[in-house]
Design brief:
This protein is an alpha/beta fold. The chain has 13 helices and 23 strands. It has two domains: 237 residues, P-loop containing nucleotide triphosphate hydrolases (Rossmann fold), CATH 3.40.50; 235 residues, 2-Layer Sandwich (Nucleotidyltransferase, domain 5).
């Protein structure tokens, strides 16, 4: 008997993250980590493994990115592997098509989406497999969430057919590195929810059309860490390039896939959490307290409370003294009007409801009598139907049945060039807060934040620069807190010499 020919191995997953991501039973998968771990290959093969399994035209996939040049790299990788299977796969290269098709009916599309409105080009379509390439490029989770409505199939297995492939899998498979405009929402949605490789389970009670009754349906997600160390095909010269990165944050992100980094942003080079984040302390009687405001309804609003130092020492809860310079600015509290657990989703509160919430918070903090009006987005003075947000917020507010004066604001600086000037002044004040490494002294007013202001701490340090203008922030990202802080900084800060003080 002649020995049987061994089957040709076209592609074999590497031990570790590639293998795990191909066999993982979770419906929603995020494959993330360092560069060079083979994430793109795994994404393509997760789709390819279900080709020729009997689903035919029902097995459709799409991989999204924000730009074609990144999709071109994916296509290049797919053309390296897919023809080797000898199953008749054909790539249609025109931008109108830009997809793989198989004689058995399966197809894989490559598409660019940038904004939520792009969803409507896919509304009503069925894609059992949806991939997102470099998910952190998406500044918010809006598009990501909307595309789940397309992660479906009308395929119903024939229970009487012994050759039926069974239920068609519904998979959303995304790849990413830690840095990018979407860093925060991805970290919050995946990284902070469960350990790597653990499957997060959630039961949702829905009406099941197949059984015509309500049932608990299991939804699952996971995130899988990928390291360049797993990729035995990676050239050591590439690793040398990664290890040679001098920017410590970028090195941690690209070499180690760390999510505890800030890299490539507007403020990362001047942000020091060990210096800028301080314990809350009692605000001295002579210090000014005011508030700033960036309005939002469908998008989040942001209220920040600030204390401006008159100089001198303050006592921290740990018993240590914090020495301040006249003009030092402390963010002492905040109210970020965002839907819990969502990125860039507002609370849709009325202006009067926001005003009431502001006063309630000031009363609970014991600072209401000391707070003076600070700067707000000038758009709140725009008149619509004979009224404005500013006017509505200034109306009397009733708290526990007691009538109180409403909330007033002053206009922010919206002069020509003020936006970029504001970012630069924030950078300058963050830098001013860092003592000289030799003398341990500071000379100019700095910017600090209480450790209770979690949204500011989470968002501001990682705000990305605009690709079109490196002196500005990417306006697609969640920048409401940054705008609100900018109004306040521009309202008060002047880079003048002050007395020298020792350390922090």
């Amino acid at each position: 008997m002649l020995p049987l020919d061994k089957p040709k191995i076209v592609w074999e997953p590497l031990p570790g993250s590639q293998t795990l991501s191909l066999i993982c039973p979770a419906q929603v998968i995020l494959l993330h980590g360092s560069r060079g771990g083979g994430k793109s290959d795994a994404q393509l093969m997760r789709f390819r493994r279900h080709v020729g399994q009997g689903f035919g035209k029902y097995w459709r996939g799409v991989i999204f990115d924000r730009e074609y040049k990144s999709l071109d790299d994916l296509v290049s990788k797919s053309t390296r592997w897919f023809p080797e299977f000898n199953d008749g796969a054909k790539f249609l290269a025109s931008k109108a098509d830009y997809r793989w098709v198989w004689p058995t009916g399966e197809e894989l599309l490559f598409r660019v989406i940038k904004k939520p409105e792009d969803y409507w080009g896919y509304h009503g379509q069925e894609f059992p497999f949806i991939g997102h390439n470099e998910l952190s490029k998406q500044p918010s989770e809006d598009l990501y969430d909307m595309m789940f409505s397309c992660n479906r199939s009308s395929y119903v297995p024939d229970k009487n057919d012994p050759n039926s492939p069974g239920e068609i899998p519904l998979i959303t498979f995304s790849t990413t590195n830690p840095v990018g405009p979407g860093h925060n929402w991805i970290k919050r949605r995946f990284i902070q929810q469960s350990p790597p490789g653990a499957i997060l389970k959630k039961y949702v009670n829905v009406f099941n059309p197949r059984t015509q009754k309500r049932e608990d349906i299991l939804k699952t997600q996971t995130h899988i860490f990928s390291s360049y160390r797993e990729n035995r095909n990676l050239a050591p010269e590439y690793v040398a390039e990664l290890e040679g990165i001098t920017d410590e944050n970028k090195r941690k992100a690209w070499l180690f896939g760390s999510w505890d980094v800030i890299s490539g942003g507007m403020f990362d080079s001047v942000w020091r959490k060990d210096i800028h984040i301080v314990q809350p302390f009692e605000i001295p009687a002579g210090w000014k307290i005011d508030r700033s405001f960036d309005y939002g309804k469908s998008k989040p609003f942001s209220v920040g409370w600030w204390a401006e130092s008159q100089g001198g020492d303050v006592l921290l809860p740990n018993g240590k003294l914090l020495r301040t310079i006249k003009g030092d600015l402390f963010r002492i509290a905040e109210w970020y009007g965002c839907e819990e657990g969502k990125s860039n989703k507002g609370l849709n509160l009325l202006a009067t409801e926001i005003a009431e919430g502001i006063i309630e918070r000031e009363l609970s903090m014991g600072i209401h009598a000391r707070v003076v009006p600070g700067p707000a987005d000038n758009a709140i003075w725009n008149v619509d139907d004979g009224n404005s947000i500013a006017v509505n917020m200034a109306k009397p507010v009733y708290v526990d049945g007691i009538g109180m004066r409403g909330v007033s604001w002053v206009r922010s600086d919206k002069s020509k060039g003020s936006r970029k000037a504001g970012w630069e002044k924030i950078r300058q004040m963050l830098s001013n807060a860092i003592p000289d490494p030799i003398t341990k002294t500071r000379k100019l007013p700095g910017l600090f934040v209480f450790n209770t202001c979690g949204h500011f701490i989470e968002q501001l340090p990682v705000l990305p620069r605009s690709e079109d203008d490196l002196d500005d922030i990417d306006t697609d990202c969640e920048d409401h807190i940054a705008d609100e802080a900018r109004y306040r900084i521009l309202n008060s800060y002047t880079p003048v010499k002050s007395r020298t003080t020792v350390g922090l």
